[in-house]
From TrEMBL:
Cofactor requirement: FAD
InterPro entries: FAD/NAD-bd_sf (IPR036188), GMC_Oxidoreductase-Related (IPR051871), GMC_OxRdtase (IPR012132), GMC_OxRdtase_N (IPR000172), GMC_OxRtase_C (IPR007867)
Keyword Chloroplast assigned: no
Organism of derivation: Populus alba x Populus x berolinensis
Disulfide cysteine pairs (residue numbers): 418-473
Pfam family, one: GMC_oxred_N
Entry protein name: Protein HOTHEAD-like
Signal peptide residue numbers: 1-26
Keyword hit for Signal: yes
Record PANTHER family: GLUCOSE-METHANOL-CHOLINE (GMC) OXIDOREDUCTASE FAMILY PROTEIN, OSJNBA0019K04.7 PROTEIN
Length: 546
């Protein structure tokens, strides 16, 4: 069993990948005249704003800025359009489990031993995720210091293009009591709508988007004066053929570079450009522009634990639509329609697991299935979380993943929430509403044993894993891809998302978050792109009148 097979077990469990689903045709690409391969870019370019990362926040940000300025977007991945693995809900698992070199999902394993992935595609994580769409709470908006009216207007702007009301089918209805139902970026036909769709708002004459454009570093002026701050003035990026290009800001004092490369990419790029912990940068031979020890700190990933419930009945394909918000700060979510052939597991390839773990997984699944396994999952995700870790460079190659450790359950408060969440899941599984989706001869302990023996991560199992919910949480933890931090507000950027210690540089994306907003952050990440784009344009206009 290779890494791909282990990853598929996780992804398919959340995917709702089903043999009895209806087929969905991939959506045709919009006719964007301003989107090109980076190989066609000039050697030298000049723009008012350079946005690094055409992801979940970068696309709405760039579209908004283009209404009043010339904008360059540099995206290291390709286009989501025309790719059925991305655009069709039924193929959700395929894109996340794709390990090819140019996959829209770049996989990594955190130093905690947990499988994870980062987006490498126009539209960012919105092109890969399960589609759940929900706002941040009023309290979250207040603590962030955002203008509530502008926040609501920005959400509405996003939703006009990408948000839909999902159907409520049997599996989701069985766990609906006491929950809230969110929107979805999948429409009624199962077509995904990503943040890239928000580029439809862009002014075509004012924007250029280059794909497979990997930014190597940000360029800063060398002042040589202790009282003068470094000023960002350009970037160096590489196209898919390996050719370097230089993009510079125009002469206006209002022009800026904005990093929207995500919770891994943004702190990584700051470090590669000389902003980060001095000792760490010098160890990699990087000249220090600003000694900023908080870059890469505060990395957090909302830990997820789940039970897979094999079903005697065929169940519909449903990704996460219903979320229970508990009194102990944990979310309970569900997805269904899992059905995958035994060939997903029995690959005969080299394994990232130990032989013993592989044997346990195969024996467990053999006891449940001969040809096809079907069912769904109920999961719990910790709000926050309290536990945090750090990100560091492994190499100075921007194509490589950095090293990241999230320190899952380092703080007892998070572990206690997980235990309470798992107890809630057990209550749901034992409920009358859920009874028809369970095999009568399979008690909850058998479901726990199943999860313990599945290769959901690379963490060691303990003797008590199957009998202690505390150990179960620690040993079977997974990601739900909501990691954040690394360039946090008031630590790396100010309240206007300007990078501390330098001029003409901002970071606008999930790396600035202290906590993950809402039950899924994507709506808020898209919203903040629009929100800050409006603010920046307003500042540009009012400065021009002075």
């Amino acid at each position: 069993m290779d890494l791909r097979s282990s990853w598929e077990l996780i992804v398919i469990a959340l995917a709702g990948f089903s043999m009895f689903r209806s087929f969905c045709h991939s959506e045709k690409a919009p006719y964007y005249t301003f989107v090109h391969e980076a190989t066609s870019a000039p050697h030298v370019l000049y723009y008012d704003y350079i946005v690094v990362g055409g992801g979940t926040s970068g696309c709405p940000l760039a579209a908004t800025l283009s209404q009043g300025a010339r904008v360059l977007v540099l995206e290291r991945g390709g286009s989501p359009y025309g790719n059925p693995k991305i655009m069709n809900r039924a193929n959700f698992a395929d894109s996340l489990s794709d390990t090819s070199p140019n996959s829209p999902s770049q996989q990594f394993i955190s130093d905690d031993g947990v499988y994870n992935a980062r987006a490498r595609v126009l539209g960012g994580g919105s092109a890969l995720n399960a589609g759940f769409y929900t706002h941040a709470s009023v309290d979250y908006v207040r603590k962030a210091g955002w203008n509530p009216e502008f926040v609501d207007e920005s959400y509405a702007w996003v939703e006009n293009k990408v948000a839909f009301e999902p159907p409520m089918l049997q599996w989701q209805s069985a766990v609906r009591d006491g929950t809230k139902v969110g929107g979805s970026i999948f429409d009624k036909n199962g077509h995904r709508h990503t943040a890239a769709d928000l580029l439809e708002y862009a002014e075509p004459r004012n924007i250029s988007v280059y794909l497979h454009a990997t930014v190597h570093k940000i360029l800063f002026t060398e002042t040589g004066k202790p009282w003068s701050r470094p000023r960002a003035y350009g970037v160096v990026f590489e196209d898919s053929s390996g050719l370097k290009h230089w993009a510079y800001l125009g002469r206006s004092s209002k022009n800026e570079i904005i990093i929207s490369a995500g919770a891994l990419g943004s702190p990584q790029l700051l470090m590669l450009s000389g902003i980060g912990p001095a000792n760490h940068l010098q160890a990699h031979g990087i000249s220090v522009v600003v000694d900023q020890p908080m870059v890469g700190q505060g990395m957090a990933d909302n830990p997820m634990n789940l039970l897979f419930i094999p079903s005697p009945l065929p169940v519909e394909v449903s990704l996460i639509q219903v979320v229970g918000i508990t009194r102990f700060d944990s979310y309970i979510e569900t997805a269904s329609g899992l059905s995958f052939t035994w060939s997903h597991v029995q690959t005969g390839q080299p394994s990232a697991m130990t032989a013993e773990a592989m044997y346990r997984a195969i024996e467990t699944l053999n006891s449940l299935v001969t040809e096809t396994l079907q069912g769904g999952v109920i999961l719990e995700k910790i709000i926050g979380p309290v536990s945090t870790g750090e990100l560091k460079l492994r190499t100075t190659n921007p194509h490589d993943n950095p090293s990241v450790k999230f320190n899952y359950f380092k703080e007892p408060e998070d572990l206690n929430r997980c235990v309470q969440g798992m107890r809630t899941i057990i209550e749901v599984v034992n409920s009358r509403a859920f009874s028809k989706f369970r095999h009568k001869d399979m008690p909850v302990q058998a479901l726990i044993d199943l999860m313990v023996n599945l290769p959901v991560n690379l963490r060691p199992r303990h003797f008590s894993t199957a009998i202690s919910l505390e150990q179960f949480c620690t040993d079977t933890v997974m990601t739900i891809w909501h990691y954040h931090g690394g360039c946090q507000v008031r630590k790396v950027v100010d309240s206007d998302y300007k990078v501390l210690g330098v001029d003409k540089l901002r970071v606008i994306d999930g790396s600035t978050f202290i906590d993950s907003p809402g039950t899924n952050p994507q709506a808020t990440v898209m919203m903040i792109g629009r929100y800050m784009g409006r603010r920046i344009l307003y500042e540009r206009l009012t400065q021009g009148r002075k």
